[in-house]
Every structure is written in C-alpha cells, then in structure tokens.
C-alpha cells in the first residue's frame, strides 16, 4: 500500500481483509456465532459457540471476549440469536424481554461504553418504530442490530485512515520509519475489524512506515503480552515486548514518535478511560514530549458524560493478580486492589483520533454534537 496522506480515504485503504485475524465468525444466513477464546491465546486457537444472551454474558465476563467494540458486537449478536428463537405474545412482552436482556448484558462490564451505547440505540430504535406488532418490532430490531454490526467495518476504515494520516503528518518529521508504543490490545482481537490504535499501527506498517512497536505487557491480564504480540506477529509488524514498568525508561532512552492507545469510554471534555496503566503512559508522554493519542470510534464516546470524574471503573477479581496459568503463585489471602481501567485527564492528550475527525480534547464536544446530527 502506498503512503498517501491528506486526502479522502482511498477506496482500497485496509479493504483487503483476507489475512485479518478474525475474533468472531458470524453466519447471518444460518444465524450462527462463534468467538475466538482469547483466554487460550497465544497457545491455542479455538472458536466457541455463542447462542444466546447467557452465553454472550458468560464469554464477556470470563474475558474470553474482551475489548470495548468486540464486547458490544458479541452482546448484540447474542441478543439477536436469542430474541429470534423466542415467541413473545405482544409488544409489551417484547419490550420487557428486551429491557431485561439489555440490563443483563450491560451489567457484564461497566466501563466499556460501546455496549451501553449499542443497547440504548437498539431500545431507541424499537421505541421509535410506529409498528406495534411483535413481528414489526422484531424486524426493526434485527435491522438495527445488523446495521450496527455491519457498520463497524466502514467506521473502522475511517478511524484507521484518520489515525494513519495524523501520525504521518504530525509525528514523522520527515522520518520514513516510526517508533510507536501501545498498551493493552486494541486490534482485530478487540473489534470486528482492524482495531483502533493497533489498526493504525498495522496500516502504518503496511505502508512501510514502522521501525518498531513497543508493546506493553499490560498487567495483570497481559493483553499486551498475549494478544498484541500475537497480532503484531500475525501482521509481520516489528515489535518488542516490554513490561509496564519499563515505559519511562523506554521513553528516556529511545525516540518514541507517538503513543497510540484505545479507550473504553471517552467523556465530552476528552477525559479518556482505558486499560489501567494508560494514565501513567500519558503522564510519561507529557514529560518526554511524546504525542499521545487515544484512537476512538464514535461508539466509545459517552454523549451524556461531561467529564471523566464519574466514569465507573470496573474492579476485577484478586485472583487475576495472584495467579499464573490458574495456579496461585502469591498467597490466596493477599489483599489486592485490581481496578481494570484508569482515566487519563484531557489535558494530557494531544488529540483524540476518531472516525469523524481528529480533535484536541477541547474541540471534541462540538465535533460530537455536529456528528450526531448528521
Ligand atoms: O479489559 P479489556 O481487555 O476489555 O480492555 C480493553 C481495553 O482497554 C482497550 O484499550 C479498549 O477496550 C479499546 S479496544 C479497541
């Protein structure tokens, strides 16, 4: 792929998905969904079925499926599969069922806002529909679910294009090859597409613009060590794995051209919740004058949250810190605090890269308002 910048998205940009790592397989005709069990990666590649909401909740809670956009996709497809097998007698029963199942899904992971946004959109679409029959409501719901699922591909191409242009235009300073740093896993394994931050990194690599990627291990769940390295290897991107505590020294001793991260929830002022350790990276980036970018689809913005102060931070079980491969390597009764996310204050962010443009945090709210009216 040629390295083109500053223009409309080329039609073939990231269009060839034949070699993309698929984390989810959905057969619309047969109404079958299987997901890659991410707990087994990188040692084993095994797809497991998801047939209903209970199974969707189970794979999300267990972290077999994770990453904010992927969680939302598996949730709405689980709902799609279950509601289409069900006989509901009237529209009141339909709405009650939809409400109950949505709440069950929303409760699985509280920080990842894509899930709540998608389910709210579904609810709104069914409520707005003037058709009162169960069949009519089901048809509107099905259409919206498939629109959200299919729409991610194009939304992701725009997001990756915007990130790709931003990095080449504003971080390369005439250099052909760039050194990048990322945390957690934000690629194909976290979405149904190329991914957010990692999608941008893969696009830059395909254009021959990557010298090296520092991937943070991402304790305690090791999404960086287990999943990001799998994806970087799969795509042939040169990389080096570092522990989270090596980030400062890496920035001190190596010229990092940009830090690209994902997000689980972005407030309208640009405060960004992402994997624990992201805030630390932003502080370090500011100290070392490295551009720091969350790469975020519209679906990760919380349009009703003004700032990040009250973003709910999911706390995970202590065993994730105390065990290795399911075995306690630290005494089981060790007191542990295990917040899965932190919030990076907007003032530490260079720009927020989105599918609707790249904005300094101060400009995000206006851009979101304008985009949501399109
Ligand atoms: O706990 P996880 O693995 O679901 O956390 C994932 C992240 O923090 C990602 O950065 C975020 O969901 C964006 S993924 C495109």
From TrEMBL:
Enzyme class: isomerase
Catalysed conversion reaction: 5-(methylsulfanyl)-alpha-D-ribose 1-phosphate = 5-(methylsulfanyl)-D-ribulose 1-phosphate
Catalytic residues as annotated in Swiss-Prot or TrEMBL: 264
Site features described as Transition state stabilizer, chain residue numbers: 184
Enzyme Commission code: 5.3.1.23
Pathway per the UniProt entry: Amino-acid biosynthesis; L-methionine biosynthesis via salvage pathway; L-methionine from S-methyl-5-thio-alpha-D-ribose 1-phosphate: step 1/6
Pfam families, A to Z: IF-2B
SUPFAM superfamilies assigned: NagB/RpiA/CoA transferase-like
UniProt GO cellular component terms: cytoplasm; nucleus
InterPro entries assigned: IF-2B-related, IF-M1Pi, IF_2B-like_C, Initiation_fac_2B_a/b/d, M1Pi_N, NagB/RpiA_transferase-like
UniProt-listed GO biological process terms: L-methionine salvage from methylthioadenosine
Keyword Transferase among UniProt keywords: no
Keyword Oxidoreductase assigned: no
Cellular localisation: Cytoplasm; Nucleus
Lineage top rank: taxon: Eukaryota
Main location (coarse class): cytoplasm
GO MF: S-methyl-5-thioribose-1-phosphate isomerase activity
PANTHER family: METHYLTHIORIBOSE-1-PHOSPHATE ISOMERASE
Role summary: Catalyzes the interconversion of methylthioribose-1-phosphate (MTR-1-P) into methylthioribulose-1-phosphate (MTRu-1-P).
Membership in a protein family: Belongs to the eIF-2B alpha/beta/delta subunits family. MtnA subfamily.
Protein name (Swiss-Prot/TrEMBL): Methylthioribose-1-phosphate isomerase
Organism of origin: Mesorhabditis belari
